[in-house]
Amino acid sequence: MAAGAPQASRESELLHEVADAVGGLMEFWGFKRIMGRIWSLLYLRGEPLSAAELCQELAISTGAASMTLTELEHWGVVRRLRPPGNRREYFEAETDIWRMVSRVLRERELTQIERALEVFDRVRDQLVRSASPSEKSRLDDVAERIGRLADLARMGRGLLSAAVAQGKIDLSPLMRFARPRKA
Amino acid sequence: MAAGAPQASRESELLHEVADAVGGLMEFWGFKRIMGRIWSLLYLRGEPLSAAELCQELAISTGAASMTLTELEHWGVVRRLRPPGNRREYFEAETDIWRMVSRVLRERELTQIERALEVFDRVRDQLVRSASPSEKSRLDDVAERIGRLADLARMGRGLLSAAVAQGKIDLSPLMRFARPRKA
DNA sequence: TAGAGATTTCACAAGTTTTTGAAACTTCTG
DNA sequence: CAGAAGTTTCAAAAACTTGTGAAATCTCTA
Lengths: 183, 183
Known about the structure:
Two copies of one chain form a homodimer.
Chain A: H1 8-28, H2 33-45, E1 49-50, H3 51-58, H4 62-74, E2 78-81, E3 90-93, H5 97-129, H6 133-165, H7 171-174
Antiparallel strand pairs in A: 1-3, 2-3
Chain A binds a DNA duplex through residues 32-34, 50-52, 60-67, 70, 85-89.
């Protein structure tokens, strides 16, 4: 094969590798694999694609495409374009990756932590309140341990909400971990 | 009911609420719910329990208990005690929560990111190398986008490994999010 | 070293999540 | 407004995950 000619098929094979890697990461973080694959493909192509093209390219059913795209849109990770005078819709990837991440953190992880925290605090309180004198010292001990769990949760919540609030969590200092970029 | 007498049943009901909350969090983070329930129960009780007691208390089968405890031990989240002259084993919770978290971060999240990063970098490289002159500028564009993904991954990796390396990620500055504690 | 007590393994059952595709629906055009 | 093109819905199939419990294995003690 000629050295300098990555046939279309070779190129799309490579793009799929990336899409699958992102799919894997997202699945690991509790999303559907297919969400990651769709977003990546849109992101890498850099131009809007129709649902039909995505079905074709990723070998998924129309139903899956429709449902997943709606979900991605709801997460603000993909935008739906309805060109006037064209009954076909197109989709493009949100490219501000931090915006995506922070939205997810806010809506998913924070709620989850909040929920656990409520339980921790309420139970701790009830244990201490209702302790009979003879049980007091043992129950205080348990309460202390619950308190530690709650502290960890609060710490996580604090980190996440600080990150989210700052909009970009001051990416610059973190960027020292990034690969030096030419441009 | 008398105000100051939390019967055993009431207490264990409360502890189960906490155990379930932790179970929920852990499930959310990609572990089995039962792992969180077992760890929490051990943690809250503060004393070693036998597998049989856990089966009883959490209403799970011996098989599930055995497998899950092995897994928890492997994660360094639970310790197995084999009192000499007693053929029954006991289990106790690791109580250094940060140690647990950092171990998980290191073994799970870091590996996952590393894996994706390899794909990103390799594909980017191959795309650029094999570009024919006519394709060059378009492919450079794609490569640039892959580069951004890789940067994000590197940033995540940097954050996690810095946290893990410092052993305690300098918990103090983060602790301002924690609930003020009396003691 | 026999065997009682304890733990592990594993094939299978139960439960859950994901995907499919055909039918219903919506929207544009002639 | 009929019908073609496109999208959504949803019930059921497939794939995957988790829990069960009886049999196999291990390990103390007498």
